[in-house]
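Hello support,

Our group uses your service weekly, and this is the first time we've seen a run hang past the timeout. The protein is LLM class flavin-dependent oxidoreductase. I'm not sure whether the cause is the sequence or the server load. Input pasted verbatim:
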Amino acid sequence: MKFGIVFFPTVGPADKPAPQYFDEALRLVDLAEELGFDHVKMVEHYFFAYGGYSPDPVTFLAAAAGRTKRVRLGTSATIPAFQHPVKLAGKLAMLDAISGGRVDAAFGRAFLPDEFTAFGIPLDESKDRFTEGVEAIKRLWAEEDVVFEGRFHRFGPVTLLPRPVQDPHPPVFVTTARSAESCAEAGRAGHNLQTVPNVMSTEELQSRLAVYREEWAASGRTPGTERIHFSYPCVVSEDGDTARTKGRHDDDRNSAAIRAAVASWETTRSSAYPGYEKLVEATRTSHFEGKLAQNKLLIGAPDQVRAQLEQIAEWFGDDITISLGVHSGHLSFEDAATTMRLMAEQVIPKLSAAR
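Update from on-call engineer: The timeout came from a worker crash unrelated to the input. Re-ran successfully.
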């Protein structure tokens, strides 16, 4: 297993001012570099406490690039439907050049109706816009004099500048929540996979990973060369009870943020998002103790979290990469730094030795 950190702020001005949150997050980027973590990532969302402090992950990652030399920089994920592909391809290529070729580019469809409304994009177009956007961006990165004729975008001939440092382009990840077909399509296209285990059962996720890996191999690619990233909220303290108290508070605030963000699904329906009207009820019935018991949260003393990770490796394979959600903003910088230090010094080395 490899480990990195992911920033998914769920705070607003009443909780923590944005400058303070970003200052804390960038100091944690410094710590990730120091402690040898594999990557840092930032999400893209708008308007709500649920991710709203990060409308442009590339801006944050550019700041992170300027203060690091080694750690990889990932979007988690950026949304092609909300930007012209020439613009998004250019921003990510520029970040790849600034960072010396350290970008991992994850793309997602988005799922919050209010975001689509604000951009004037119909929900029903999200899948087609995603597919077209990713195709255009990959071509812009890898080719010159690109002429593109899509349903939503037409341009060319265009030669993007700057060119990405990584050849032929940064690794491409597809972020998916629940869709088995999205996993299959990602495998067929040769895209890496990024997902959140919290939104489905262990058995569902195992099934989706099997489909993804089968499609990856069936497309002629070497089995085992695919990259799979999971994201987990994480709170570690020397004392397990202290970790659970802090983890419960963080999870309660995160749950409240997502409940507010998905509320419009009560009155919204889209053929592109079958069953998403159930999200509202799911956020009401999801509770801390249940998620912790199912290893959907990594919370506890070092030995307890190591045991959780050993179980996760048995379920999904020990070749996955884990992105640790260490700082949603509701706990202190010191709490997040403690989690990272304990993971780097007492959890990950013992996990590696045990396996």
